[in-house]
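Recap from last week: sequence in, structure out.
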Amino acid sequence: MRLVRPTRSVLIFGGAGFVGANWASHLLSNTNARVHIFDNLSRRRVEHNLRWLEHLAEGTKRLEITIADVRDSARVAKAVQEATEIYHFAAQVAVTTSLDDPRNDFEVNATGTLNILEAARQSGTSPFLLFTSTNKVYGKIGTVDRDPVNGNRYQPVRECQPLDFYSPYGCSKGTADQYVHDYARIFGLPTVVFRMSCIAGPRQFGTEDQGWVAHFVYSALEGRTLSIYGDGHQVRDVLSVKDLVRAFEAAYLNRKTTAGEIFNIGGGAENATSLLDLVAAIEHTLHVTVRCRFCPERPGDQPIYVTDFSKFSAHTRWKPQRGLPQIVDDISGWYHQNEALFTPAAYAIPASKMRPEPLGGIAS
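Predicted structure tokens:
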């Protein structure tokens, strides 16, 4: 039987993380693409995602792994050389961490992105490049109409909403967002920006600083008290990572029209929930009681954000398929299958200390 050579050479910065691992899994399982993971393994426990991907790719010679940092421009340039597609998920992801160390936040999110863009521009191959930005670039926005008859109605946010970077994290991601968009206009790179709302699903090691939906589910299952910052009436829309993976594929397949564009991506009004409503839904779905304690509101927290994804739907016909109950079930089911990953021993040592040397070869 004649072997079919891969026509897609996909480079994923942050490929061992929650979003990156789910996207890499899709590519390895459903396409003939060659996948190159580039990650510094700085987030605890993501090495488990990497091992899972190695298992999926066993015997195929379609997975390459580089352990390095996006701030290393030489390593980034080397990785980009053969890529036909680049997905940039590597980031410092928490507002709270950006407040503690704004310089590190900027160097990872802004300088790291510039390194990737410059490598792509100088490669001469004009690879498709998708960058995951954040709704935080819009600042503190959002309104809610409290209707006693029809319930709360939210005003979803469209891409024409003025930017208002808030918090160091919002500034660094906003800087990267604008650089990625401008490299399409000025240098002709086929780039796409996804300004994302809350993403949730399997393989997410959520904390109270990032990945809050998974953090709520895990805390409920383990009987831990949840800390809710503010009054709990903050509203977010939630998107399943499975639907996000579909959006990545849709953006690539429709790249003749999506290239150069910015899209808001999220679950939309149908998947909007307040923190307290989600707690109630978790209690109902998982048949548990959740204990909560209320803490002062944190800087940079948006009171309300709900995505209007109609622009992306118009380009690709994409829309979310999984609702909040399914998302909670997906996270709960993955937790029960992988409880060993949530023991103290599973994350006592930072991943960066476990695999310090770069891997340049093919994972078998």
